[in-house]
Each structure stands twice: as structure tokens, then as C-alpha cells.
Amino acid sequence: MLSITTLSLWNSLLNQIRKEMPQQSFETWFACSEAVEISAERLEIQVPSLFIKKWIERKYSDLIINSASVVLDARPELVVSISNAPVDSNPSIIAESEIENEVKSASKAPRKTTGDSSSINRNFTLEQYAPGSENRIAYEACKRSIEKPGEFSPLLIYGCHGLGKSHLLHGTALAVAANKPQASCVFMTAEEFVNEYTSAFAEKRLASMRSRLRSCDYLIIEDIQMLLAGKKHATIEEFIHTFDALTNKGKQIILSSNAGPESMIGVDDRLRGRIMSGLSIKLEEPSFPSRIDLIRRKTAAKGVMLDPETAEWVASQTSGCIRELEGAVMKVVAVASLSGNAVTLEALKPHFSAHSAMARPCVAISDLAEAVARSFGLALSDLTGRKRSQTIRAARTFAMLLSRKVTGSSLAEIGDFFGNRSHATVLTALKNAPSLFDCDNNLCSRAENILLDLGFAANTSKMFASQGNLF
User: Fold this and answer.
1) What tens digit of pLDDT does each residue of 369-384 get?
2) Which residue has the higher pLDDT, 220 or 47?
3) Among the four 24, 86, 293, 433, which has the fewest Cβ within 10 Å?
């Protein structure tokens, strides 16, 4: 039995070690450890298995000795021994045999693209991506990441909805699988990362998850803002350690987000700094000449040839949103296929609505929030913070309402941007929004002016800003 002095020193030492590492790592590797001897010359601890002994000796020896120097004012010799306790006596410890079997299985298995492969769109190849002059750098950066992993890492592709972020990331994952079959590529959404971590923690298989993610050659994660601005601190810690492990090995990390690192609200500063240390590229909406070229290329790929005048007219019916452009291409192909005739301008016009030609630029929540803040004479931090004065609450609700109607963002995305507010909080704010217009008869004209400032055409701004459309 340990003496009171030894037990006290051991508890102090454990507390010092706990400060220097993530809580989950501490629980995994030190929860079942016991002190045998603590002195200025010798520190002996016992652990339940050979695997844990080797892991601690390899990974945590310096940490333990440095912590001992704080507690003992000395640097004792560290000895790690194995106790007679069964390996699974504490459920937080992962059995050595389980980890060894997983490592052996992983080493025999072919290295391939993993994650939820069903979430990868096989049509989103890099060959099918038409970047235009506006997004050529983003396209080339993804290609370079395949050829020379780690050169531009982390690589962040960001921009508002519908500009092709998913196409680039899916295409990169597919290209790695096709051109580098021996490389290991993990593709997942931020939501899948959170779900996998949560289930791995509950099922005591964190070691397996960490081995897979931290040993891959390419880690590609979509919609990273859903993870970074979350409140699950353990998940964020896990991502930080995964990020650091891959970066230290010179591996490639590719992320997508709806905003650049400097505009991400509520993000841990450690993560912001890590992302900013790499290459961040904003996707821009394609110009009118680029839209013409995209439409001609995409329709030609489906066997429909458009003359220059028709392609130009179809381009004029779309905004800078790639998804809207894809819809226009599908409409052209459908008309050609179902009519059985050559596609002409006259044949297409009846199938495009009167609102198609309205200039509707692609804007992000951050664009609208900043414009609303300026309109109310406030700072953006007022809208994303916790202040609750009447003016700030009205402006915040107004910004949430415009974000929902103009960008089509989900309630969760809007809540994340406006200070990590919950889905229910945003829903309540939107339900109460009509009362704003009872108190301020100028809100519709204010909305119209905001949209005009963001580049919307006059008729589009008027349509969006009408009270009937807002509600």
C-alpha cells in the first residue's frame, strides 16, 4: 500500500500531467496507472499492459519527467512496469490485442479512399470542373495537392453556396483514388467527423479512428465551419491533434467552408491560426463570358450543341450560382431530348421563367450580416455577440431573416454564424420577425437598399425585399 506522502505526490503529479494533455488522452493512458515509487532519484509507475507501457515510454516519457520536475523539483529516472491487473479492468483502456489486430488488418488492407464513400459524387470529377478565369487558381491548387501533397497544406476552398466547392473536393478525392492507388485518402463531411468521433468514443475504439485519420496521406473535409464553430470541445480537440499529426508528417489537408478563416465566427483561435498558416482561396461567381463557356461545354458533354447566340441567351438567364447554371443546362438538354428537334432560341424561351434574367449575385451570410450591421450603425461583433439591447436584437433578427431568405442557409448554419446560437433560437427569432415591421415601416426599403448595395438588380431587390416574400 502506498504511503500518504507517496499518494499525495502521485495525485499532484497526475494533476500536472492532466494540464498538459487532452482529457480524453489522459483518461485513455493514465487512468489505470499506479505509482510504485516516487523519489527525487526514481519514479516507477505500473500500467495494465505491455502495449500501454510501450506507448507511454515512447510518447509520454518527457511529459512525465517534466511534470515530475515541477512537483518534485528533480528529474528522476522513469521506470514503467506492468501490473498483474487484467487489461480490461477499466473500460476506458483499449485492449492491446484489439489495437494490434486493427493495425495488422490495416497494414494488409489496400490503401484507398475511405470515409462514407456514398457521399462522394462520382460525377464531380476534376475533368468535368470548368473553373473559368475566376477560379483557375483554386482548381490548379487542388491538382497540385494531388501531385505534391503537403506543399499547400492546409488548403481551404471557401465561398458562398453553389460556386463549386463540393465539386473541387469530390473531384480531388476521386483523382487521388484514380492516380495514386497506393495513397490513403479519407474524405468526409464535418458532420461525419463529429459522428464518427462520438461513436468511436462511446464504443471504445478511438485508437482505431485515430490510427485511420492520422496515418492517411490526404484528409479532405467538407463544410469545416460546422465543426470549427461547434460547442463540442472534445471533438475540436480531436481535430486539432489530427491536424497537427498530419501536418507534422507533411501530409495533405483540404477543407471547404462558407467563409474564410478571418471571417469564421466563434472559431477556436488555435484552429483559425492553423488554417491561416496554409493556403486559403475564395471561389468567385463566374463572369458572363465564363458562364457562356460553361454552358456550351456542359451541354456539349451531354450531346447538345448550342450556337453562340443561344448559349449567350441561356447564360443571361442565370446568376453566378453554379447550381442554377446546372439547372439551366439540364433544362436545355431536356428540351432537346424530349422535343426531338435541334435546340433553338425560340424553343427555349418558353421554358425559362420571367424571373430567370434577374441579376441575383451569390452572397454569403457574412456579406448580409456586415451590410445589416452597417445599415443599423453597428459592428458585426454586435450581431454575433451576446448583447441584447433592443436595437441589436432587432438588427440581429433582421439579418437572420435576410440570411434565410436570400442565401437559403439552414437554421443551424445561421445559428452558427450568429454566435453559435441554437436551431431553436433562430427559429424563434424568425417567427417573431413580423413584429419588427410593425415597429419600423421602413424595413422593406432598408432591405431593398441592402440588397442593392450587395449587387442585386433593382427589380430583384424589390422582389426579395417585399414583405410578402420575406414572410
Assistant:
1) 888 998 888 988 889 8
2) 220
3) 86
The mean pLDDT of 17-41, rounded to a whole number, is 79
DSSP 168-224: HHHHHHHHHHHH-TTS-EEEEEHHHHHHHHHHHHHTT-HHHHHHHHHT-SEEEEE-T
CATH superfamily of 113-282: P-loop containing nucleotide triphosphate hydrolases (3.40.50.300)
Q: In the CATH hierarchy, which top-level class contains the domain 288-351?
A: mainly alpha
Residue range 4-89, CATH number: 3.30.300.180
Q: Bigger pLDDT: 293 or 1?
A: 293
The CATH class, in words, for 365-470 is mainly alpha
Amino acid residing at 68: A
> Where, residue-wise, is CATH 3.30.300.180 in the chain?
4-89
Cα 383 to Cα 146, 326, 399, distances in angstroms: 40, 35, 8
Report the relative pairing of strands 218-222 and 185-189 from DSSP bridges: parallel
* Predicted confidence (pLDDT) per residue in 224-237, tens digit: 887 765 556 788 88
CATH code 1.10.1750.10 region(s) in the chain? 365-470
CA distance linking residue 471 with residue 466, whole number of Å: 9
* Residue 368, number of CB atoms within 10 A of its CB: 26
Residue 40 CB neighbours (<10 A): 11
Name the segment(s) of the chain with CATH classification 3.40.50.300. 113-282
CA atoms within 13 A on the CB side of 453: 15
Task: Please enumerate in sequence order all residues whose Cβ is within 8 A of that of 8, keeping only pairs 6 or more positions apart, or say none.
Answer: none
The pLDDT score that the predictor gives to residue 360 is 56
Tens of pLDDT along 329-342? 888 888 888 877 77
| The pairing of beta strand 34-38 with beta strand 42-47 | antiparallel
114 sits in which H/E element: strand 113-115
With beta carbons less than 8 A apart as the criterion, state whether 368 and 450 touch: yes
End-to-end CA distance of the chain: 72
Mean pLDDT of the 128-148 span: 88
Which triple of cell numbers denotes residue 441? 415601416
Q: Name the H helices within 302-422.
A: 308-316, 322-339, 345-348, 365-375, 380-384, 390-402, 411-417
Give percent above pLDDT 70 in the chain: 82
Enumerate residues 6+ apart whose C-beta is below 8 A from 367: 160, 454
